[in-house]
Amino acid sequence: MSSPTSRHVSSLNLLKIRFPIGAVASISHRISGAILVLGLPFLVEAFALSLRSEAGYDALLSLVRNPLTLIVLLVPVWAVAQHVLAGIRHLLMDAGIGSTLRDGRRSARMVLIGGALGTAILLWILWP
């Protein structure tokens, strides 16, 4: 029998929880790392295809120039930008730079904005 002070949580809706900005930056760092690991075999295969022959290179180039493919490629581009910026943030905080709560929140915002901004700039540059 449960005690009168214990409360039973029937369901936990993660979409209703408001995470701190530092947690969002940390979670996005982990997600971007997973995307990079999962995308690595595709990157290796694309690189191998581009080196096999001129026809393979041309096929890969035409695939990348497709607007739909370009949009799909923005996910790993975002993952690289996000992961690098968040990694630098973590290294600096480990060294004691920006480890106060105020600085941590500011750097988390900068990482999230920087990842999105870097992706948007690359899209602007590469859009056909």
Q: In words, what does this structure look like?
A:
The chain is mainly alpha-helical and 128 residues long. The chain has one domain (21-126): 3 helical TM bundles of succinate and fumarate reductases (Up-down Bundle). It is 76% helix and 0% strand. It has 4 helices and no strands. It has helices at 21-52, 54-64, 67-94, 101-126. The radius of gyration is 21 Å and the shape is elongated. The protein starts with 20 loop residues before the first helix and ends with a helix. The relative contact order is 0.14. The mean pLDDT is 89.
- Outline, from the CA principal axes? elongated
User: Which parts are unreliable, with pLDDT below 50 for 5 consecutive residues or more?
Assistant: none
Count of DSSP-assigned helices: 4
**Rg calculated over all Cα atoms:** 21 Å
Helix content: over 70%
- Beta strand %: under 5%
Overview features:
128 residues, 4 helices, single chain, 3 helical TM bundles of succinate and fumarate reductases, mainly alpha, elongated
Topology:
Elements: H1 21-52, H2 54-64, H3 67-94, H4 101-126
Helix pairs in contact: 1-2, 1-3, 1-4, 3-4
How would you sum up this structure in a few lines?
The protein has 128 residues and is mainly α.
